Amino acid sequence: MKELTPFRLTPLGLVHTLVSIVCVLFAVAAVVVERRIDPHTFLGFGYVVTLWVTTLTGFPIFRSGKVTPPHVLGWITAAVLVIAALAGNSSVFGRFSAYVEAVSYSFTVLLLMIPTFTETLTRVPVGAPWVASPDAPVLRGIYSVLFVVFLIGVTLQVRGMQAAASLPAGG
Length: 171
Known about the structure:
This protein is mainly α. It is about 70% helix and about 0% strand.
């Protein structure tokens, strides 16, 4: 397939990348402004829609001609999105539904950030990327930091939800 850009992107890869960038912007805006991913708000809905598009457009991309870790990450992301939607739209998780929804959407942000950092650092700057390959040890360190940030964020989010739930009605 013909590559379009200096970043070695095919037409599908370019669409995938552009939607992914929008998805990251929605995620950051939702977390900063709303302190969570809420699919019932403009930012949360935009995030969920663009994450689905990003996930689905990632499946047919095969740089090596075979299924790779990003494909597996895509399947995990799709499964977590389904769990989050199920938690938010049913009582299947009982009194924990709101927590399952919040943690699930937060987890999808972590899953989104892994390929975001990997793809950016292994492609930029063109011709001399900051990281030589997706297997570079520096990326494992970045993933560890992302996981710690995720844990801190989820802890704060759950504590905030618990505090809000303990407030008296109307106050």
